[in-house]
Design brief:
The protein is of the alpha+beta class. The protein is 25% helix and 25% strand. It has 2 helices and 7 strands; from the N terminus they run αβββαββββ.
Amino acid sequence: MSQGRGSASRAAAVALVLIYLLAQAEYARAATYTVGGSSGWTFNMVNWPKGKSFRAGDILIFKYDPTTHNVVALDKGGYNNCRTPGTAKVYNSGNDRIKLAKGPNFFICNFPGHCESAMKIAVNAA
């Protein structure tokens, strides 16, 4: 007995629902962290990640006054030297949500003197 078009449509709909549910399950497992806690993104942040376990897909929320700070996602060299390479992504909303990639993730504030005053974090996401 051959299957009609309705069977194929139902199978496609079920597949789409399963894909959606899997995506939601992955999102639900992601943790959300406010960088700096109630103090927000500010100076002397270098030690903030210590004692926390991060996973790829976790969300970091950076809260700050955008007239005095920003967030720059950059590479290790830029992080170590407090320099913003052309490939860096600059955020400046004051309420940035950044999804962690697997492996090392580096963030600084590139306002003059801020990175040098430890307004930077390095996060390793498993």
